[in-house]
Amino acid sequence: MLPSEPPVSHATLRRPRVLLVDDDPSVIRALWRVLRKHRPQFTVNAASGAAQAIEALSDLTYDVVLTDLQMPGGGGRAVLEALILHHPETARVLHSSQLGSLDPFHRQQAHAVLAKPASEAEIIAAIDSALLRVASEPARRVG
After folding, report:
1. How many angstroms separate the CA atoms of 130 and 143, rounded?
2. Fewer CB atoms < 10 Å away: N or C end of the chain?
3. In 3D, which of 78, 136, 75 has the Cα closest to residue 111?
């Protein structure tokens, strides 16, 4: 069963923002549909790779970034590292079919980790959990 209400995010005067990052357009569309269905109040943007995601992060503040791990251009690791260094207040969710290749440091730095394919309930639970974890953390910068 899906929770009916998402946790409160850092966005108090605007709709929570989610950035979806995946080089597979069908995955982006599927994630987008899940969020539209279960979290219609979220503003959802997408990036097709690490470089585009990092650029998007410089343009807007996001509450959650859900990124694939394996992508060209540094992949999800590059996105995760940019979030850790420059946007520690942003919830970080990793989504991949190759989680076995995720090193302990990156696994620890993610607020939630999802194996592909994930169910709608797992996706929403991961995003909600990541938002709650960030809300309970003191703001910090690594590095």
Report:
1. 22
2. N
3. 136
Q: What is the pLDDT of residue 141?
A: 45
Alpha carbon distance, N-terminus to C-terminus of the chain: 39
Q: Can you give the residue range of the structural domain that contains 36? A: 17-127
Structural domains in the chain (count): 1
Tell me the residue type at 16. Answer: P
d(CA 83, CA 56): 12
CATH code at 101?
Answer: 3.40.50.2300
Could you read off the pLDDT of 95-127 as tens digits, one per residue?
Answer: 988 777 777 877 788 899 999 899 999 999 999
CB 78 within 8 Å of CB 99? no
Q: Write the CB contacts of 67 (distance below 8 Å, at least 6 apart in sequence).
A: 19, 20, 21, 22, 53, 76, 79, 80, 92, 93, 94, 95
pLDDT of 48-59, one tens digit each? 999 999 999 999
| pTM, to two decimals | 0.85
Asked whether residue 116 is assigned to any structural domain, the reply reads yes
